[in-house]
Every structure is written in C-alpha cells, then in structure tokens.
Amino acid sequence: MVEKAKYIWLDGKFIPWAEAQVHIMTHTLHYGLGVFEGIRAYRCQDGRTAIFRLREHIRRLFDSAHVMQIDIPFSRSLIEEVCCDLLRRNGQASAYLRPLVFVGEGVMGLHPQNNPIRVALISWVWGTYLGEEGLKKGIRAKISSFSRHHVNVMMTKAKTTANYVNSILAKREATALGYDEALLLDIDGYVAEASGENIFIVSDGVLRTPPITSVLSGITRASILTMAQDLGIPVKEEIFSRDELYLANEAFLTGTAAEVTPIREVDGRVIGPGKPGPITLKLQTAFFDVVLGQDPRYRDWLTYI
Ligand code: PPE
C-alpha cells in the first residue's frame, strides 16, 4: 500500500491527498490516453534533498505529450517548481514523484477533441522496486511470451499509460512463474527491455544495451551510458539476442524505480558467476554516489529542493 502524503497537486492547486478524486467519466480511465513520469528524490549525504535529473524527466513528459497530441496547460518550469514544492510541503526527504497528465470528462469515444487536459503531481515514499535483496544479490528474470510494442503499434518513446498494459501482462506472467521480472523481446526477437526498466549486459568487457528504437529512452540508461564512458568502460548501443544475454558475463536493469539492479539468472541460466559482476557493481556504486550528491562531476543532474 502506498503511504498517503499530505498533499497532491491537481490542476494548479495543492489539495489534501484524500480529496484528489476524479469522475468515472474521466476519458483516460476508459481509453488509456495519458502520459506520466517517474522521478526520484534522494536525501543526500549532506542532509539536503535532491531530485535526480528533474529537467530531463519533465522534458520527457512534454515530449510524450507532444507525441500523443496532448497539450499540457502548464509550462515546464512551473511543473519543475511544483515538484520541489510538493516535496517540501509533504516533508519528504526522499520520495518518488509521479507527474500524470490525463484526459478529463467531456465527450466519450475515440476523438476527445476538447476534453480538459488534467495534470496531477503525486509524491510517495517508495523503497527498492525489486527488493533490497535483488539490489544487492541480483534478480531472476524470465523472457516474456509477450513482445515489446512494435513502433507502428504504439509510440514506444512516449511514456504513455496505455503502453503499460503490455508491461503488466509480462510482469504478471513472470511473477506467476516465480521470477522477479519479465524481459521483453522486440518484434524481431531481439532483447528490448524489462517491464519497467532498460537492460544492459557486459560481454567480454564491453557494456551493451539495445538502441532505443522500440524501448523507452530511459534517463537512468542515459546516465549509466555517460558514467560508463567517463569510467573508461567501452559501451555499445546495439541489438543482441536472448542467447547473447544467456552468455553475458554480467547483466543489469536500470530505471528510476529499479535504480541499478543486477540480474543473476535468466530463464534458468545463471548469468556469469550468478552474482553481481565487477562492472555492474562499479556502475551501481557510481550511480548511488551521484544521486546522493557525492560526485561533483554530475552536480548539474541534481536539483536541490
Ligand atoms: N523502460 C520502461 C518500460 C519503463 O517503464 C522505465 C521506467 C524505464 C525503461 C526506465 O526509464 P527511466 O526511469 O527513465 O530510467 N519505469 C518507471 C515506472 C515504474 C512503475 O512501476 O511505475 C520508473 O522506473 O519510474
């Protein structure tokens, strides 16, 4: 259960958590046209709170809306400001921020021309997404029987609510079979991403991740690519097959919620030595140093509230 915070920002106003209700005729509830973001704020080593890559997340929110032809009735800078303000008002030193843009009541049917565009900002405390144990020792993943969206079926660069039905189907299937996470292949059978994370593998010292063609352009993914290059780790954005994943020396997932989570097993095949490998650990440590404000090189990725 999500622990209630004091306030939610809805359509321009801070209102008590319990009052943030919508009508059953809310268009997005019926058809799934909406866009959202997931952003983490961390309590840094010096006691201050910093939001990780706030600008990039809000830019992606507006990019998703652009792709889905949704006009957000607020400016990017206002939404960024409200994210900081919400954390302050809710007294949360570390939290997960969820901007959600959805289509309100008006007409029904598949042509919601003038229905109001509504915007909510929610913050809640969210622990490790795939468990403390998963973060430390690695998770067990399963290739899903569901494929990742084809680029001409859904807009894969847009973080649209409707895309996540595919993720839920995959996640349910994997967890029902006793796995922690689902990995989805693209329509051509190459590894794409997990239900809510991007994927990386290490093969012979090279860090590899699928190009963003049919996957979400992850902000954690982009951060890891930059950090790896700065650490002198060779990186390649290229497609790979599931047997290349089985044969990888290391594998891990990245995402705002999942942070940097090692993968220790896929489809019953142990990955490398079956525990987080040296490159994974190096990048995971570097990632937490950055988000906790311990690495001055990436200070501009943090917005202190
Ligand atoms: N792929 C998908 C499909 C995805 O949903 C996410 C984020 C990522 C990749 C990684 O993107 P980024 O967060 O920018 O590094 N998934 C969000 C949703 C989690 C949820 O269950 O809700 C997240 O991590 O916030």
Main CATH class of the largest domain: Alpha Beta
SS class: alpha+beta
CATH architecture of the largest domain: Alpha-Beta Barrel
- Determine the fraction of residues in helical runs and give it as a percent range: 25-40%
> What is the number of strand segments?
17
Globally, the shape reads globular
Percent of residues in beta strands? 25-35%
Low-confidence stretches: none
Taking the sheet with the most strands, its summary is: 9 strands, mixed
The total number of structural domains is: 2
Query: Secondary-structure element order, as H and E?
Result: EEHEEEHHEEHEHEEEEHEHEEEHE
Q: CATH superfamily membership of the largest domain, which one? A: D-amino Acid Aminotransferase, subunit A, domain 2
CATH topology of the largest domain: D-amino Acid Aminotransferase, Chain A, domain 2
Rg over C-alpha atoms, rounded to the nearest angstrom: 19 Å
End-to-end distance, in Å? 26 Å
